[in-house]
Amino acid sequence: MTTSALGLALSWPRPVVLVEADPSGSRSLAAGYFRGGQLPTSRTIVDLAVSHRQGTLIEDLPPSLFAIPDSRVQVLTGPLRHSQARALELLWEPMAAAFKALERQGQDVIVDVGRLGLEGSGYKLLAAADLALLTTRTDLPGLVAAGSWVPSLRSTFEQAGALPSLGALLVGAGRPYGAGEAAKVLGLPIVSSLSWDPDTAQVYSHGTAPGRKFAGAPLNKSLRAAVQATQAAVATVRSHLDLAAEGFQS
Fold first, then answer.
1. Is the whole-model pTM more than 0.70?
2. Less crowded by CB within 10 Å, the N or C end of the chain?
3. In whole angstroms, how far apart are CA 241 and each of 48, 104, 160, 163, 247?
4. How confident is the model at residue 161 (pLDDT cuts 50, 70, 90)?
5. How do residues 15-58 score in pLDDT, each as one tens digit?
6. Residue 69, SS3?
7. Which distant-in-sequence residues (6+ apart) come within 8 Å of 32 by Cβ?
């Protein structure tokens, strides 16, 4: 999931903030893409939990970000260890509002919430998102595991009046099941699919040096297509919500 989120962020045409909201303390970006190197800041999302308690969340968010060189991407890193997850539980709702403020300033936000069901999971961020994508591989174990979350996700989004904001992103469509079969299993619209391309994925997951043909690699082509599909889906969701608001006002 972190590989997909990072790939989408680096393919995003607008300035974007990538938020590592995985409460497990895996530090996937630091250990993977940045190859365990020293990051430009020691601040993490846990520091913002302190900021929230002090009433300075909005002010402290921008200084907590760092830029990925030669990109439009800024990063907010996740907790250092899983034992910090409990500190995040009261942060997610105010963080959703802070992310909306960033968007009004011209920055989109991509959040990697990690695996669902973990202590401190950013579950409350999901229904506040313009678009939430349940990300899964297309083999049977992946689809069954993802599908087990669909009823509770649908319930959460229905209660928030945001069901059109819920969809799925497939990794490796056709290995072995395609988008149509996956949609039937999941009961969710498939917004887009990413190509199965392990060599290129290593650049995002492990910081491997990109080869000469990196830009045209299957995964990167599918990432660019997924960005377009995601932006189109967000536009549709916003149009739907605007119409609903107009109907409510009338």
1. yes
2. C
3. 30, 17, 12, 10, 10
4. confident
5. 999 999 888 867 788 888 888 777 888 889 999 999 999 999 99
6. coil
7. 2, 3, 204, 205, 206, 207
